[in-house]
Amino acid sequence: MITRRIFNSLLLGASTLAYTGVLARPAAAQNTQLLKVAVDSLWQTMSPVTGFATSSARIYCNFYERFTVVDYLADPNGSVVVNQLAESFERDGAVWTVKMREGVLFHNGEEMTAEDAAFTLSDERYRADDAYEPRGATFTEGFIRVEAIDRYTLEIETQSPDIHVPAKLSSVGGIIVPKAYYLEKGVDAFGQEPIGTGPYRVTTFRSGEIMVLEAFDQYWGDAAPVSRLEWHVVPEFAARMAGVVSGEYHVMVGIPTDQEAQLASYDGVNVISVPFSSYAAVAFNTLPDPVDNPLVDARLRYAMVQAVDMDLIVQALFGDTTFHPAVPFNFPEYGEFYEPDLQSNLPYDPDAARALVAQTDYDGQPLIWHITRSFYPNYETAAEIMVAQWAEVGINVEMRVLDNFSMVYQRPFHLMNFGNATSFIPGDPYQPLWMDWNPEANRSRADWKTWAPSADYIAAGARFNSALTFEERFTAFKDLSAAWQEVTPALFMWRQVGSFAVRDGVTWHPAGSEMRMFGGYLSLA
């Protein structure tokens, strides 16, 4: 776990520091069993970064591996990071020396080397103007040189000392790809025939239908507990439920909250709910696009926050399985950054909301809310309640439920749904507060951008990124959060919760939103 003491020790001067945690789990004997999982969808490509999405990232872990990985068995909140394909990290100022694990084979039989690791993080792949997967630039912010020194050693140089590099490499940006095969296939073809170093190899992938994984018998770690994993696309919940109740499937995903009790009542079926590292939210379009957008007035955005009784909504829809974070970025998974008694600047107060609306020039025009259909469980139901509560204070919001994000991103709109992930640096608020909102982030640059970072926000972000002690980083975090709240470009709704059904005989521990079918996460009776 990254504590304040460890955090400070990571930052000490120019002396070298070893980051040598390792993932060690009891070995599980491989057998010949087949495990079948019913999922709602499979993303169209498994390219590690380009294809990063909920339906792909949850299964990456079975065939891809990274420099480091989050150990959810040590802490279900995901604050513990251990080495995976890296054996050790040593930092000298702004340069990290990384020793890679020896004898690790890709699924095509080629050995993974530092050359592959360096290519994975290279300008050519992430940061060049014509990069293969430019989305990877956000995962390697500040990297200025990545170079293989010998067969198993590489150096990573950053613009300024960055003690978070090992943790950052636990993200999808740290998934190590085989350089030669990747270049031979190209991003699109690689995403259809992916190769990694994980305990399973992909043998079949048809995105609208099925993915088949088979145990990789040359895997460097513990043998996979099953010889064949099948991920079947079953879009309708009723069909998935029927399949798991009948025993056709061993595991299923995507259970509506109000269906959990019924599903759990069937013999041989167990329901598991776990918190994800992501928060459902609604983004306010703060920009003058459309030109008459009344949400450019921050007072109207404040009013929209104060008009919604989100605690009541979350309790009604989820019971005690999750919560509403009243103060943005004050999330309990952030350990010492978390202040449980912190009070919101914009508490639920309909009278205050009405007073704020009266101060604006808002004339009651409809505010269009783009929502992706079935985006997250209960989102549309919550939105209907919110629309009613906004109406009570004189704010007219019109929901438009659309089939996909491409449609949601089409202007004009005043609000849109999104989920803000929180796990890029485990135990640290870097991702939700800076990575996803900074001047280079999609929310600031894409065609569908919804805000322009303020000067105060950018200045606080610079202090946050260059902090050399926990105390400095915590102070900068507070300033950065305050600058974001001054604008209030979004309303956080609740921490995402995932529910799974598992048949008797299958002992499985979810790893946040990931479905790890190996190691200490899965065993079969």
Percent of residues in helices comes to: 25-40%
Based on secondary structure, the structural category is: alpha+beta
CATH architecture of the largest domain: Roll
Q: Kindly report the name of the CATH homologous superfamily of the largest domain.
A: Dipeptide-binding Protein, Domain 3
Number of domains as seen in the coordinates: 3
Low-confidence blocks of residues? 1-31
Mean pLDDT: 90
What is the CATH topology of the largest domain? Dipeptide-binding Protein, domain 3
Q: Taking Cα atoms only, what radius of gyration do you get, to the nearest Å? A: 23 Å
Largest sheet: 10 strands, mixed
> For this structure, what is the CATH class of the largest domain?
Alpha Beta
Shape: globular
End-to-end span in angstroms? 32 Å
Record the SSE blueprint:
Elements: H1 4-10, E1 34-39, H2 54-60, E2 68-70, E3 81-83, E4 86-92, E5 95-100, H3 114-120, H4 123-127, E6 143-150, E7 153-158, H5 165-168, H6 179-192, E8 200-206, E9 210-215, E10 228-233, H7 237-246, E11 251-253, H8 260-264, E12 269-284, H9 298-306, H10 310-318, H11 350-359, E13 367-372, H12 379-392, E14 397-402, H13 405-408, E15 415-421, H14 430-435, H15 442-445, H16 455-466, H17 470-487, E16 490-503, E17 506-508, E18 522-524
Parallel strand pairs: 1-10, 1-11, 13-14, 13-15
Antiparallel strand pairs: 2-3, 4-5, 5-7, 6-7, 8-9, 9-10, 11-16, 12-15, 12-16, 17-18
Helix pairs in contact: 9-11, 10-12, 16-17
